[in-house]
Write a structure and sequence with these properties.
Blueprint lengths: L2 E10 L2 E11 L4 E5 L6 H8 L7 E6 L2 E2 L4 H7 E4 L11 H11 L5 H11 L15 H13 L5 E5 L7 H14 L4 E5 L3 H7 L2 E6 L2 E7 H6 L4 E8 L5 H5 L6 E6 L2 E7 L5 H10 L4 E6 L4 H8 L4
Amino acid sequence: MSIKVENISKLYGKQKALNNVSFEVNAGEIVGFLGPNGAGKSTMMKILTCFIPQTSGKASVCGFDVAEQSIDVRRNVGYLPEHNPLYLDMYVKEYLEFIGGLHKISNVRARVKEMVELTGLQIEQNKKIGALSKGYRQRVGIAQAMIHNPKVLILDEPTTGLDPNQLEEIRNLIKNVGKEKTVMLSTHIMQEVEAVCDKVIIINHGEIVANDTTSKIRNSQEELQTVIVEFDKPSSKSALKNISGVRDAKNTSGNIWLIESPSSVDIRKDLFDYAVKNNLSIISMQKAENKLEDVFKTLTKGE
């Protein structure tokens, strides 16, 4: 077990940022930690990285208690905060050597070279950090988080403000790192979670509202399903709605229809029968996948 959180609460005066939160993250998992602004994501991450103490409850990382064994926790955790705190007047290699020195890494220059290659910083390694783009600064932040070879990486909004190309590069980096380490990341980009994460934890108003694999979370709120069907000739909404189990039918373009029905009903056979009866051919038919974004909105509605 890489991360174990048991009944963690955090109070800021009278405001409760976290309320009796419990979850576990297994070794080798990439976990998306999601929630609206102010839900408690960053607070939880700061507790796990020993930046702030919890008000009550227990948390451990790699078997070490965050309150009683904070030095051991920090040896095993790499952390990229939401606002990447870099020394902008330092050169990339100089900064990473400085961070490596803080961790007392032997042969620090060899380790810096390894991190530069792993994070794709070769072209920029001799530049000042202040001269780098946002994407390369994030790479430097991830490199400093990994330089001491931690077992767990905690990344708070690692792709904020990146362009589509930079997003893809950082996602691929996280996926590669996740082959060897446990990764916990927070983000507001649902496509990122679906592309990268094995598991999703959703927090709202300081409480866990969902905790499962990405696919199960995506299907957890499914009451209706949508089948996308394309006929070879025109059809009509009224005729399609007369099919048993069909709640609604929407024409998107040409002869393509979105057919909505209860998730418990398989309408494919009835659609084939309808097509045969009306001298139609079905060119294609597929079930539309539920979006994690829709589940997120449902679970955190009211924000």
